[in-house]
Design goal:
Blueprint (H helix, E strand, L loop, with lengths): L1 H5 L1 E8 L10 E8 L5 H11 L2 E2 L7 H11 L3 E8 L7 E4 L7 E2 L18 E4 L5 E4 L5 E7 L2 E9 L1 H12 L2 E2 L14 E7 L5 E3 L20 E5 L4 E5 L6 E2 L1 E3 L2 E8 L1 H10 L1 E3 L7 E7 L7 H6 L7 E9 L2 E4 L21 E5 L6 E4 L5 E11 L2
Parallel strand pairs: 4-16, 21-25
Antiparallel strand pairs: 1-2, 2-17, 3-17, 4-5, 4-14, 5-6, 7-8, 7-12, 9-10, 9-11, 12-13, 14-15, 18-25, 19-20, 20-25, 21-22, 21-23, 23-24
Protein name: C-type lectin domain-containing protein
Keywords: Signal
InterPro entries: C-type_lectin-like (IPR001304), C-type_lectin-like/link_sf (IPR016186), CTDL_fold (IPR016187)
Length: about 375
Amino acid sequence: MGNKRSSELMLFCLFFAALCLKAFTTGITIYCPSQKLNWTDARLYCQRNHIDLVTWNVVNTSQLAKFLVGIKVQQAWIGLLRDPENATVWKWINVKSGTGISGDDLSQSSYWAHGEPSSNCAFVKEDLKWHSVTCSDAHDFYCSEKENTYYHNNSLNWHNASQYCKNESDGDLATITITNTDELKKPGLIGLYRQAGETWSWIGQQTSDYRNWAHGEPLTADCGSFYLENVTWHSSKCSDKLSFVCYDDDMVVVNENKTWEGALRHCRGMGTQCEDSLKPCTYLYDLLSLNVLSNYVIDRIYRATTDEVWTGLRFLGGEWWWADGEQLGDQGMLPDCLSQRKHCGTLSKYDTKNWITRDCSERRNFVCYKLFKERS
């Protein structure tokens, strides 16, 4: 553990995650490993050694910018990805499941740099070579009408240009073939666009295998990075090797099946030396104790391999207590007249609004959380 983290730069951010709890807050620590990797390998590294690449759900812009300034990193991968099913949509990675993407479309977010995210429309530049450009930017364009190609000095974005061609000439943006490529004399949009995934296709009814891409084109910038200079997001080629930022929290989802007592012993038997403190200290662990649920905690337990996980909830002396010695805030949430042996509390991955009472001798996954203890 120490060898792994000695090659990383880290920042501890106390992240309250809307919990407002006495018993538990979520501490987020972010790391920037020393090596540079492509986006896919960067995410694998984060998942193997931490939790995942950072997203704005766990670390905000100012925290990340301050961190990167301190370690002199200008650009870093974050957990932002183009939707493989819809090339115009960008989303955060799905931290809950550890695969895929989730949440709202971020393509119109104000965090993008000017001209970002890169879109997937083809534009003929002055060199008469084809370049991938942002579809929302306005340019002159070419329309096809039957066998003819016409240039229009009327600056429109790609989608409006396509509609213009349909309305004015009963055609569409131009499909370029080996026979009509010589008609391209000026910069302008053509009818080639990128569909979901990495397939470029022609709009309208005509098809053509002809391509005249400039060197290095077309860009397939499907992965999101954070750029420190203007504190914005950029779409970058996923194969580029960049720095990247991972994150950890104070919870450990243990994918071992133990009884409640076994889970308690396991958590309390864990302990690590602090590596991000100015004073000597130790991190101790306990079974998760919390009075109020948060979406963050709910998402974190989703990766357990059992449907329910043990928490630090235990019925003792006619009342419900947490493993850290605090009483359950609302005793009415759970029965005070229990069926035999159902004296321990779980949380379900699928019914996350209620505590569940179970036989303490049953075996399942459990959640430990980290406690900070300064050594004298």
